[in-house]
Amino acid sequence: MKLLSAAQTRALDQATIQAQHITSADLMERAAGAVTNWLLDELLLDYDTEIQVCCGPGNNGGDGLVVARQLHRAGYPVQLWLLPAARHSTDFTHQKQQLPTGLAVRQIAPDNLPTITAGTVVVDALFGTGLSRPLEGLAAALVRHLNDSDATVVAVDIPSGLYADATQPADSAVMRATYTLSFELPKLAFLLPQNASFVGDWRLLPIGLDAQAIQNMACAIHFVTADELRGRLPKRPKFSHKGTFGHALLLAGSKGKIGAAVLATQACLRAGVGLMTTRVPAVGYDILQISAPEAMCLADPATDFLTELPDLTPYAAVGIGPGLGQHDDTRAVLRQLLETAQVPLIIDADALNLLGAQPELQQLLPPDSLLTPHPKEFERLVGEPARDDYHRLDQLRNFAGRTGCYCVLKGAYTALAAPDGALYFNSTGNPGMASGGSGDVLTGLLLALRAHQGISPLAAALVGLHAHGRAADLALPHTGHAGLLASDIVRFIGPALEELMDE
Ligand SMILES: NC(=O)C1=CN([C@@H]2O[C@H](COP(=O)(O)OP(=O)(O)OC[C@H]3O[C@@H](n4cnc5c(N)ncnc54)[C@H](OP(=O)(O)O)[C@@H]3O)[C@@H](O)[C@H]2O)[C@@H](O)CC1
Ligand SMILES: Nc1ncnc2c1ncn2[C@@H]1O[C@H](COP(=O)(O)OP(=O)(O)O)[C@@H](O)[C@H]1O
Ligand SMILES: [K+]
Asked: Is the model's pLDDT at 502 over the cut of 80?
């Protein structure tokens, strides 16, 4: 799915109206109808629920007017509130004229704000994608009034006051929605941790926006769904053998962190690699052989950390990082790997920290390498804290462009920046993954996919990120959020990948 800017959303609106020979009022009727249906079918409004619909002066307010009309006609006790404004959109004015006479119109004023009681549902139709500046005055007072209440707030399209694709000034008033109902496509703002308390639970409501127009829209930011990935992972041919799926090498572990090497190894095996060799310091040899008997193990001459790079000739891809530690000798192994590797590299955890501590090593990164930092590792990598989540995404895209590598930013909606500037957000996963070891599993999974010759670097990264979160989602009913361990993710990698395979 494309994540369109506010201007593109307006253009799509117009393209739909032209392509489908409808009026903007028809489209508004559809949009509002989808909101009304969601309120009735998903929120399960009953006839006793007090519903306050708050409308601004533009088309977002127009949507609110139609929702109020539809709910009123269906017999629900709606109270309709309008924000005074110097100008109103044409469609707002049109919809206001369609209001049934029995539906009272109340003007919002400093001394006349909606009264919220227990169970009140507020429909926030003040401002949508046409927001042009931070809220102030009466609009800000209303939003603060509602934020201080216990109302269930359902935001139409986007919480009022929230910019769709930029950070609003600090301390500006933004609605804290319980639910946000976005038309057809999500907005970039929904995917960023800084906006979680405004956006609440977000849902997409299809309203028949023109598919061809969406396809024609130039857009470098994507929210990746299972539908878009299905078929990107080749089915295993009948006469395949272990040589078909590549031989992966993992460099991982140090004393006390051999578990990271074990988890990444198990994940790589479960992701279908043909052959797997894991290089660990000598202290990890027995542990690895026992916990991952399908993998071969190469012990380093040193006991507690890696000091030597093995011969890379047999391997189709190399992963480095989980549990590695940051010893000087290990840094020399990383340098040697970067200087000599002729195959795809996956770089994670302490290998990223070593790259952050010695930025000159970053110039050695082979193009198309895949780096998998979480935000703190990413900050160390680029050597500069981000001002906010948007700035961090800019840093991510710059890093990918500068190095020619694919760079991940792990989180609830993990982002992937490609060297060509495109940005992809993963759509799977759950907060049960927020515990040690989940990232090590991702490294192993991605390593297997990069060792596979039949998958492009981009497809490997997208399929890997998706399957990682999906495996955790499949594990969830068996474990619950608190009980979800990294090893549970490993167990469901197979089924998660199977869902994406060619028929
Ligand atoms: N595209 C789609 O898919 C569909 C879109 N639809 C709906 O249309 C919505 C977009 O509508 P929209 O463009 O009319 O903008 P909207 O958000 O109502 O605000 C504009 C008004 O607010 C004003 N204003 C702005 N900022 C302000 C501020 N801080 N403080 C005070 N005033 C401020 C601004 O005035 P001005 O900036 O000119 O002073 C203008 O009057 C979209 O979110 C969705 O709900 C559906 O109906 C159909 C499908
Ligand atoms: N709230 C969340 N929702 C979805 N995925 C999450 C969430 N928290 C963490 N994850 C995922 O779990 C993994 C954690 O990786 P990382 O921080 O490297 O952990 P570790 O180093 O302990 O293995 C990442 O892939 C991240 O996207
Ligand atoms: K809104």
From this structure: no
Determine the Cα–Cα distance for residues 320 and 116; give it in Å rounded to an integer.
56
Is 195 annotated for ligand binding? no
Strands 406-409 and 415-417: antiparallel
- Residues forming a β-bridge with 175: none
CA atoms within 13 A on the CB side of 55: 31
Residues lining ligand 2, Cβ inside 6 A: 349, 374, 410-412, 414, 429-431, 433-434, 436-440, 442, 468-469
Cβ 64 under 6 angstroms from ligand 1:
no
Measure the CA–CA gap between 247 and 250, rounded to whole angstroms: 10
Facing residues of 371 across strands?
Answer: 347, 407
Structure letter (DSSP) for residue 197: H
* Residue 311 pLDDT grade (very low, low, confident, very high; cuts 50, 70, 90): very high
How is residue 387 written in tokens? Answer: 């001002």
Residue 461's nearest CA partner among 419, 398, 412, 489 is 419
Instruction: Say if residue 204's pLDDT is above 80.
Output: yes
The interface predicted TM-score (ipTM) is: 0.93
For residue 159, say whether it is annotated as part of any ligand binding site: no
DSSP class of residue 230 equals T
Of the CA atoms within 13 Å of residue 63, those in its CB half-sphere come to 28
Structure tokens at 19: 């392509």
| Nearest-angstrom CA–CA distance, 60 and 123 | 11
Domains of the chain: 6-219 (3.40.50.10260), 229-243+309-498 (3.40.1190.20)
As a whole number of angstroms, the distance between CA 462 and CA 446 comes to 9
Residues 6+ apart with CB under 8 A from 34: 181, 183, 205, 206, 207
pLDDT digits (tens, 9 = 90+) for 26-62: 999 999 999 999 999 999 889 999 999 999 999 999 9
Residue 432 C-alpha to ligand 2 middle, in angstroms? 9
- At 155, the pLDDT band (50, 70, 90 cuts) reads very high
- Rounded Cα distance, 355 and 347, in Å: 10
Q: What is the DSSP letter of 133?
A: S
pTM for the model: 0.96
Strand order in the sheet with 105-107: 105-107, 78-82, 51-55, 121-125, 152-156, 179-183, 201-205
Substitution site in 59, 94, 163 for ligand 1 pocket (most atoms within 8 Å of beta carbon) = 59
Residue nearest to atom 1 of ligand 1 (CA): 13
Q: What is the pLDDT of residues 414-458, one digit of tens each?
A: 999 999 999 999 999 999 999 999 999 999 999 999 999 889 999
The answer to whether 413 is annotated as binding is yes
Ligand nearest to the CA of 129: 1
Query: To 5 degrees, how large is the angle CA 349–CA 353–CA 358?
Result: 150
Query: How many Å lie between the centroid of ligand 1 and the Cα of residue 26?
Result: 17
Confidence class for position 244, pLDDT limits 50, 70, 90? confident
pLDDT mean across residues, the chain = 96
